Amino acid sequence: MDRVEELKREAGIAACSFVRDGMRIGLGTGSTVKYTVIEIGRMISEEGIDVIGVPTSEATRELAESLRIPLSTLEEVTSLDITIDGADEFDSDFQLIKGGGGALTREKRVAEKSESMVVVADDRKQVVTLGEFHLPLEVGKDDWHIVVTKLQEICPGQVSLRGGESPYVTDNDGYILDCEFGPTISDPASLEGQIRSIDGVVEVGLFVDICDAVVMASPSGVTTLLKQGGRLD
Ligand code: 5RP
Asked: Is residue 33 within 8 Å of 91, Cβ to Cβ?
């Protein structure tokens, strides 16, 4: 396992300190939170904890099923105790860019239904200002051309259809647009509002005021950053 993979694993496992018997847990998507899901599977089989997971993607559902984690759906649960998920970037206000894996819409719905959200990441994801990572948006398949035209009025860089001529199709049967804002997103709430007002946009990969803690692994160890005044503080 290379060093970055090792850091992902350390963060993913450390975040399970937030997991308690009886919880309903939103299970995120990606190569870091995969280790959280595997650890939850271990806690069920070896420690006998009783939890229910709500997966944020088909990939996570398949992984969780293979680990025999009892699952429910977003439609079946009224609320979740916690969501643990990865992120592509986080800033010092715990605002996030997500959607690198294309699962942003379900990830946001699950996180919004949760009483708290914990992000697992290695220290490469920590930024001063969001936007170096391209901002993903989910759009309707028939609307993407018009959304690109509108976005070009507000995005200083390129806007591209993920997958190009063979577009990437999300679990919701939508497309993803990746927008190169550069590290300019100092007011993510206002940008999110601006983008959401464009017809055809299904969801924006900005997670504003949703994350309560980041479990971050770096070469010097794992640190849990708690948002002051957040739901886990
Ligand atoms: C998927 C996501 C992921 O959580 C994000 O891309 C981080 O993934 P990884 O841990 O593989 O870097 O938002 O839509």
From this structure: no
